[in-house]
Write a structure and sequence with these properties.
mainly alpha; single chain; 2% strand; binds zinc ion; 5 helices
Amino acid sequence: MKCFNHLEREAVATCQKCGKGLCKACAEKHTPCLCDACAAQIQRNQQQQAQNREAQRKQKYKNALIDTRSEFIVTAVLGVLVGILFVWQETTHENVDTSFIGYAELFFGGFCIPFGWKFLTYLQSFFPVSLFGTFWFWFIYLAVKVFLSILVGIPAFLYQLVKVILTQSKINKLNHPLLLRAHTVEKE
Ligand SMILES: [Zn+2]
Ligand SMILES: [Zn+2]
């Protein structure tokens, strides 16, 4: 058999993929022993796979950002409900003359409670202790957690607000085709 590239030379090996004859010089070009066409194709496949992995990684990152944003929206909706509940509760009292500012403070205080709750739940994740107890244990546990949620509500809300704004700007960057490259480079 002759070399596929050099018809005047005797083949000493064959391409492991397509079986074409290769002379000594051609056989030594690629490891494992491949002809130029097969080596190029394998390289293209590898590049394609690397690109797919990168695209998957990016999609995963984007999904995580979108999850963070969705969580914030759900917490805010709960907050609005709690705020309305607080304001409604106040209006049911007789002979109270609550000012608009008073209602606004009540609403905001209520609005922040789910954010405080979420923050406490996040802190609890660092102490993986499983709790068991009676009804009264759970009642006290929940009461304490609600109380602490009120205390940490406003800073917890502000923290999560800043976080979601940063998250949204990251999502915007990912959606922007030109900045997408900059982001990839920055990651590496
Ligand atoms: Zn080949
Ligand atoms: Zn050759």
